[in-house]
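[recover] target loaded
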């Protein structure tokens, strides 16, 4: 199952590009569709970081 891994990487890259809404979408999709992967990565931490960060 590689989809959640690539969604996670896409989320990290979206954060680097300051596309925090996209990153939140990727992380939330991992949490909803791949709960076993989400628990391994503690995806809640990444969702909180991306959703609370504002573009300066």
């Amino acid at each position: 199952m590689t989809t959640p891994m690539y969604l996670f990487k896409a989320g990290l890259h979206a954060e680097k590009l300051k596309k925090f809404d996209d990153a939140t979408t990727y992380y939330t999709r991992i949490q909803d569709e791949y709960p076993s992967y989400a628990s391994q990565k503690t995806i809640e931490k990444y969702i909180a970081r991306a959703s609370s960060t504002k573009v300066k």
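[recover] notes: The mean pLDDT is 89.
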